[in-house]
Specification:
Layout (H helix, E strand, L loop, with lengths): L1 E2 L11 H6 L4 E2 L3 H18 L6 H11 L2 E2 L4 E2 L3 E3 L5 E3 L4 E2 L3 E4 L4 E3 L4 E2 L4 E3 L1 E4 L2 H5 L2 E4 L2 E3 L4 E2 L4 E2 L4 E2 L4 E2 L4 E2 L7 E4 L4 E5 L1
Length: 195
């Protein structure tokens, strides 16, 4: 997702504050880089665990993520930008290979099923080449309602909300909001029927 940029150079807030509020920020800011290093260390430690290390895995996820609900299982490997902007509800299941670029909030409800190799992508980059080279970015949040099922390889783009009880077919690219209780497939994802 791309768009025209006016990064508002007179905005004096710290870049990390600008980032988490969804405003334009510089991705190579030292505070942001340090936050990425923290999440990278925690993600590597989590990905190095085995399924038998239940307590250690839960401890690492609690430290990495903004919130994780009771009886939620996340299989390795995962990759996140920061982790702290990800909140997952209770009894959800995340299969192998999740990529969650949580520049801003990614909220995942209760009883959600996420297939292998799903991508949840909040970042947006400018169209102007000089601004991309300068590392300007911003992001829009993703919300996934309760009891949603994302099939394998689904990509959810910035700013998307998926309503409760919706199923998104394998390989779909979700570029716009999806209502509750529907089946959506394709690229771009389109609703094909109510559930």
């Amino acid at each position: 997702m791309t768009e025209h940029v006016d990064p508002l150079p007179d905005d004096r807030r710290p870049m990390l504050e600008r980032m988490v509020s969804g405003d334009w920020y510089l991705a190579d800011d030292p505070g942001i880089v340090e936050a990425i290093h923290r999440s990278s260390d925690l993600t590597a430690a989590f990905n190095a665990t085995t399924a038998r290390e239940v307590d250690r895995r839960r401890e690492l996820l609690t430290e990495l993520l903004g919130a994780i609900g009771e009886d939620t299982e996340i299989r390795t490997p995962i990759q996140v930008d920061y982790g702290t902007q990800i909140r997952i509800g209770a009894r959800s299941f995340v299969n192998f290979g999740l990529v969650a670029l949580d520049v801003v909030d990614i909220v995942i409800g209760d009883d959600v099923q996420i297939g292998p190799n799903v991508q949840l992508l909040t970042p947006i980059h400018p169209l102007e080449a000089d601004l991309r080279r300068s590392k300007w970015e911003r992001a829009e949040p993703i919300t996934i309602g309760d009891n949603v099922w994302l099939g394998g390889g689904v990509i959810v783009c910035p700013g998307v909300t998926i309503g409760a009880n919706t199923v998104v077919g394998a390989g779909a690219v979700v570029t716009k909001d999806l209502p509750a209780g529907v089946l959506a497939v394709g690229n771009p994802a389109r609703v094909i029927r109510d559930l």
